[in-house]
Amino acid sequence: MTFPLFYKVKLIQDIPEFNLKKGSIGVIVEYYPMSQEEDGYSVEGLIAQDTVEVSESQIELINVEQTQEKVTFLN
Question: I need a labelling partner for 62 at 20 to 30 A (CA). Which of 30, 35, 42, 43 fits?
């Protein structure tokens, strides 16, 4: 499955070399198709002012409904 650019994703496993934990959220900014290996992505927002390269099996898309805040107006 190819994830679309500029969508929010979360890590589904820790990445110890960057001290990143499962559940960390970022945005896909680049896609790297691989012929023999797993496709890769650059994800922004996991580390301040930098991107992290991850494999497809390390991320999952965040459902839009999960990220929208529900606002209740009181009269």
Answer: 35
Put the strands of the sheet holding 25-32 in their side by side order.
Answer: 50-55, 40-47, 25-32, 8-11, 59-61
Residue 52 resides in a domain: yes
55 Cα distance to chain centroid: 10
pLDDT band at 74 (very low <50, low <70, confident <90, very high): low
Residues 43-63, mean pLDDT to the nearest whole number: 94
Confidence of residue 36 (pLDDT cuts 50, 70, 90): confident
Can you say how many angstroms the Cα of residue 68 is from the centroid of all Cα atoms in its chain?
16
**pLDDT at 40 (0 to 100):** 96
Give the C-alpha separation, 8 to 25, whole Å: 7
- To the nearest 10°, report the CA torsion of 30, 64, 1, 46: 40
